[in-house]
Write a structure and sequence with these properties.
Layout (H helix, E strand, L loop, with lengths): L22 H4 L2 H16 L4 H14 L14 H5 L6 H9 L6 H4 L3
Helix pairs in contact: 2-3, 3-5
The chain binds zinc ion (2 copies).
The site of one zinc ion (ZN) has 6 residues, from α2 and α3.
Length: 109
């Protein structure tokens, strides 16, 4: 199997493939509202890229302790952002995407 990288960042993830969000997101009103907004966009099959960006930005700003560690495999983005202070926030937002998106979509941005 070759890696399946045909997806576009603007692709709408399939609701069934969404991961179960971590408990801290359910404990935060803003996360909960953002997740509902994302699910609604997905259900309506309209673009949800803005919603993805709102959520990752909110996680980095409000839950910086919960941003996942850098990916050590199957990620082209982590190695290219590592050790670059100029993209530190972008990198954290990239890692935060894992928390609420399927891996194939999370790692596109
Ligand atoms: Zn939150
Ligand atoms: Zn990564």
């Amino acid at each position: 199997m070759t890696s399946d990288r045909h997806e576009d960042p603007t692709d709408t993830p399939n609701e069934e493939t969404l991961p179960v969000p971590p408990p801290f997101m359910f404990g935060c009103d803003q996360c909960a509202a953002l997740l509902v907004g994302l699910a609604e966009k997905i259900r309506a099959d309209v673009g949800c890229l803005d919603q993805q960006l709102f959520i990752s930005r909110h996680i980095v700003e409000a839950h910086s302790d919960d941003v996942p560690a850098p990916h050590t495999r199957l990620c082209d983005i982590c190695p290219s952002y590592a050790g670059r202070p100029d993209v530190a926030i972008l990198w954290a937002e990239h890692r935060a995407r894992d928390l609420f998106l399927p891996e194939s979509i999370a790692r596109l941005l």
